[in-house]
Specification:
- This protein is mainly α.
- The protein has helices spanning 26-30, 35-41, 53-74.
- The longest helix has 22 residues, at 53-74.
- The protein is flat, with a radius of gyration of 28 Å.
């Protein structure tokens, strides 16, 4: 009744992959000036947030409880 579509395929081509895969050129990779090596070395330490997650959750719960009591008191 209906024509079923064929599955779509994707031909991925790595743009950093050298054309000659059988002979890897290790000299150009180890000098540290390539984009990939700079990207791998660029891992920065994580920045601590001002308040931790448990403190933020506690403040949220405290806010909700206070809203509940204020609503019951003035309504």
């Amino acid at each position: 009744m209906f024509k079923q579509r064929s599955h779509k395929t994707f031909q991925y081509k790595n743009r950093f992959l050298k054309e000659d895969v059988s002979k890897p050129n290790l000299d150009s990779e180890t000098d540290g000036s390539t984009f990939v090596s700079k990207w791998k070395k660029g891992n920065r330490p994580k920045v601590k947030s001002a308040m931790s997650l448990p403190v933020l959750i506690f403040v949220l719960v405290l806010l909700l409880v206070s809203m509940y009591f204020l609503e019951k008191r003035y309504m």
